[in-house]
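WARN no homologs supplied; continuing
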Amino acid sequence: MLGVGISPISMAQALDSMAGWIASRRYSYVCLAPAHSVMSCQGDARLARIFNSSGLTTPDGMSLVWLLRLKGFTHVERIYGPDLVLAACRRGLEHGWRHFLYGGAPGEEADLTARLESQTPGLSVCGTYTPPFRALTDSEDSGMVKQVNATRPDVVWVGIGSPNQERWMAEHLGRIEAPVLVGVGAAFDFLSGRKPQAPRWMQRSGLEWLFRLATEPRRLWPRYRRYPHFALLVLAQELGLRSYRLDG
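OK structure emitted
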C-alpha cells in the first residue's frame, strides 16, 4: 500500500504471532498502520523501512481493511490498538504473559493499570515508564532500558504516538529484552478513560477519524487533511499510474 507492506490478518492471527514470538523468545515489533501512518512514510524512506521491517504491520483503519478485502483477503480485520491490548491481556492470562506499559501522560499509568487489571483479573503488569515530552539523553535511555529489562516483560506496549513509537521500537529492538514490542498510539488515553472513544458504529463505518477530529481539531487536523491525498494516491496505484517499491 503506497510502498508500505500491510499484513492482511485477523485479530486471532495477530495474537498467534505474538504468542509464537513469546514462546520462542524471538524479538520482534508490531506496527499498527492507519492511513496517516502510510502517508507519513511517503518521502521518509527510513520510516518506511521501519514499518516494512516489522514482524507485523497491521491495518488500523477501515480504509485499509476495505482495500485489502477488495484484493481478496476477506478474513482481514482491523487491528485497533485498544482492542489488541485487551485481547492480548486476555490471551496472556493462561500463559502468564508479563506486560510493561511505556508511554502515556504523567499519572496516567495508575489509571491505565487499574482499568486493565479490573477488566482482566490476574493480569500481570510488571512495570510502567512515562517518558518526558522530549528525547531521552543517552544516560536516561540506558537507565530506562535497565529498568524495563529488570521487570522481565513479555510484551512492551508503546504508547508515545506515531511515528515516534515506531522509531523507538526499531531503535530498541534487542536492547529491550522483551519478545514483543507493540506501538499502540492513543490506546493508553482511551483505555485509561482520559479520552473518549468513538462509538463502535463509527469505528466500523470508517468514521472514527471524524469523531476524533471533533474532539481534538487543532491537534488532529494536520493528520486528517492528508486523507484525500491518500485516496488519490491509492487510486493511482490501483490504476497502474504509479508504482512503489517495497523496501525493508
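The chain has one domain: 11-185+206-238.
OK
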